[in-house]
Description:
By secondary structure, this protein is of the alpha+beta class. The chain is built from three helices and 13 strands. The chain has one domain: tt1808, chain A. Keywords: Endonuclease, Hydrolase, Nuclease. It comes from Chryseolinea serpens.
Amino acid sequence: MKTLHSNPSKFLTLEEFLQLEETTHPCELINGELIMSPVPSPNHQEVSGLLYVLFFNAAAASGGKVYYSPIGLFVNQRNYFEPDILYISPKKLSFITQRGIEGPPDLVVEILSPFNSRTDKVTKKNTYLEFGVSEYWIVDPFQKNITVYTQSSGQNVPSHTFTGKDRVSSPNLSTLTFDLDKIFPV
């Protein structure tokens, strides 16, 4: 299976995107283009689930909130994303609405799959950081690493890459620490 791209000569607005019929496949609006991806693999789901538990416990201790896909992140009139995991600090809880998340989260996590690698590593990374996301994690279950981009490091230079048995932590969620090898299935 591969990612389905809509007709690139017809760009959608956020309002048009929100009028589409519901689907069981992950669906995002990226630069005005409707992107439908295959459902996540079991490996992707396992990594996502393990990360979610760690984030949930850390968020509860911080007074913030954590959400997992599918959760709508309203970026602008041409972009609506469904990140794998996102964290909202106590000071940004007002961004949580009945529609989804309507403001930049403190931390966003995308887990790579063979179908979304370029989108997550380039297009979404740049859009997230331009939107004001403080910290963006690209989790690579194939290479078994996490690459972190921050507002201060910019779009082109990661602030950190966690590999091997590194201890993972986040400046935006200080209650989150774990050993990297705990999230990747053998």
